[in-house]
Amino acid sequence: SQQGEEDPQALSIQEGENATMNCSYKTSINNLQWYRQNSGRGLVHLILIRSNEREKHSGRLRVTLDTSKKSSSLLITASRAADTASYFCATGFPRMDSSYKLIFGSGTRLLVRP
Amino acid sequence: SQTIHQWPATLVQPVGSPLSLECTVEGTSNPNLYWYRQAAGRGLQLLFYSVGIGQISSEVPQNLSASRPQDRQFILSSKKLLLSDSGFYLCAWSVHELKRTGGATFYNEQFFGPGTRLTVL
Fold first, then answer.
1. A41 and B108 in contact by Cβ < 8 A?
2. Most confident by average pLDDT, A70-74, A90-94, A102-106, B105-109
3. Contact list, B114 vs chain A (CB under 8 Å)
4. Fewer C-beta within 10 Å: chain A N or C terminus?
5. What CA–CA distance (Å, rounded) separates A73 from B50?
6. Which residues have a Cβ under 8 Å from the Cβ of A109 and sit 6 or more positions away?
């Protein structure tokens, strides 16, 4: 089963508005990452928040993490049409063989209308 | 700078035919490599990962196999495709060493290729 589940599954907003996407997970995490995927393309890493952090900013992105509720949110402020994409949260787990496992949620499809 | 390539970009294959998807990474050495599958409108499922040449770990039982014949080459294969093998296949790489930030937090970003859209008919 998916570790992370995003909510909503789809979001349509007007350019200039803020977009908020939520992610819930089930087990304890080491960190949580957000990725973006343009239609039919690979994923691009956006931001990482460690388990001992509560909030992090990167440009127009703001990520919060509430480990007591096992949830995270991604806020995109002043959205642009170019922000149209699917957004995924992923929980990260280091492993003994030095690999790193990411478990992805099912994503939120964001449409920003010009 | 590092780049990751996948080919082909799209593929249509009949049921029962073999499969070979290739992924190569440039600009880095000894990367960890990953194969994911993404069903339509869904998240990513990790299929295989490799921490070195010839080292393959499988995450889920399936009809597919992976190989790493060279340091920066990762191949996904099947002897006989099933309808359920259709999907979007993504290759990713990360640096081998885990990054450490304050305390005991280890993390690594993964960098994804452009993907291969496979349709099995």
1. no
2. A70-74
3. 41-42
4. N
5. 31
6. A9, A10, A11, A85, A86, B41
Q: Length of chain B in residues, anyone?
A: 121
Phi first, then psi: give them for residue B50, nearest 5 degrees: -140, 130
* Cα separation, B47 vs B108, whole angstroms: 18
Residue A47: C-alpha distances to residues A66, A73, A75, B61 (Å): 16, 12, 12, 31
Give the pLDDT confidence of A35-82 residue by residue, as tens digits. Answer: 999 988 899 999 999 888 999 999 999 999 999 999 999 999 999 999
Taking alpha carbons only, the member of A86, A81, A90 closest to residue A108 is A86
Amino acid identity of residue A104, one-letter, is F
Angle at B98 between CA B94 and CA B101, to 5 degrees: 125
β-pair type (B99-101, B44-52): unpaired
Alpha carbons B85 and B31: distance in angstroms, whole number? 26
Cis peptide leading into B8, omega within 30 of 0?
Answer: yes
- Mean pLDDT on B12-17: 97
